[in-house]
C-alpha cells in the first residue's frame, strides 16, 4: 500500500485495514514505521471527522472510550484493578474509582489522571 493523505472514507477504510494488518509489526522495522505513519494519519482523519472532547467525559465514560477506541480491553482493566468483578463494578457504576486505581490506570494506559479524577454518579444499590 502506498502511503498518502487520507481524504475520503475509502482512503480511511483502506488505511484502517492496513493498520490492522500491521498491528503486530516490530518497532523500528519497515512495517513498524509504516504502522506508525498510518496510525498518525488515521488519528488525524478521525479527529477531524469525529471529534470527541474527552475533557467532557466523566471517568467511567473515559474508561469505556479507552476500551472501545483506545485499544485497551476490559480484561486489561481487570488486571489493573485486581479482578474482573471489580472492573465490572466500576464500569457499571456500582463502585467508585479509588486514588490507587486511578494512579494504576493513568500509569499503565498513559492517560492523564485529571481525566479520571472527577465526580460522577454511582447507581443505587
Automatic annotation (TrEMBL):
It comes from the Bacteria. It holds the Pfam family HTH_3. Residues 73-116 form the HTH cro/C1-type domain. GO terms for molecular function: core promoter sequence-specific DNA binding. InterPro entries: Antitox_HigA, Cro/C1-type_HTH, Lambda_DNA-bd_dom_sf. GO terms for biological process: regulation of DNA-templated transcription. This is Helix-turn-helix domain-containing protein. It comes from Bradyrhizobium rifense.
Amino acid at each position: 500500500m502506498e502511503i498518502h493523505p487520507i481524504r475520503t472514507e475509502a482512503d480511511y477504510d483502506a488505511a484502517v485495514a492496513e493498520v490492522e494488518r500491521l498491528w503486530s509489526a516490530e518497532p523500528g522495522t519497515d512495517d513498524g514505521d509504516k504502522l506508525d505513519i498510518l496510525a498518525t494519519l488515521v488519528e488525524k482523519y478521525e479527529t477531524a471527522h469525529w471529534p470527541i472532547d474527552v475533557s467532557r467525559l466523566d471517568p467511567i465514560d473515559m474508561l469505556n472510550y479507552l476500551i472501545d477506541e483506545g485499544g485497551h480491553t476490559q480484561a486489561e482493566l481487570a488486571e489493573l484493578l485486581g479482578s474482573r468483578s471489580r472492573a465490572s463494578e466500576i464500569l457499571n457504576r456500582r463502585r467508585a474509582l479509588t486514588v490507587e486505581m486511578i494512579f494504576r490506570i493513568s500509569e499503565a494506559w498513559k492517560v492523564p489522571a485529571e481525566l479520571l479524577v472527577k465526580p460522577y454518579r454511582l447507581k443505587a444499590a
